[in-house]
Every structure is written in structure tokens, then in C-alpha cells.
Specification:
Elements lengths: L8 E2 L6 H12 L7 E2 L11 H11 L3 E2 L1
Parallel strand pairs: 1-2, 1-3
Amino acid sequence: MYNLSDKKVMVTGGSGFLGSHIVDGLKKRGVLENQILIPRHAEYNLTNKSSVDRLFDQTRPQVVF
């Protein structure tokens, strides 16, 4: 199992049913809440390339789920 406790982790859909379970699992594995990024559709449209580029430029995640 990989150690993610020192990584900035993005969980797309992190507020949904499946994503929330991923977020819970990350927290149980030592990832700090302020290191978990959950992009919101109101801020980033993940179906739009320029919006995705902006998301990655602004947040610089190391791991993406």
C-alpha cells in the first residue's frame, strides 16, 4: 500500500457517494484534511479542458482519484 500521508490528493466527485468513501479512506490512512482537494463543479467544470488546466495549475495535486 502506498503512503499518501505527505501528498496533496485530489478526489474528483469527492462529495458524492463513492468519492466520499475515498475521502474517508484517505483520512483513515493519514492524509490530512487540508491536503485533500475536492473540486466543485461551480468552480471547475471537469468536462472543459481549459477549466481542468486551470484546476491543475492552481492546485498542483500529486495524486488524483
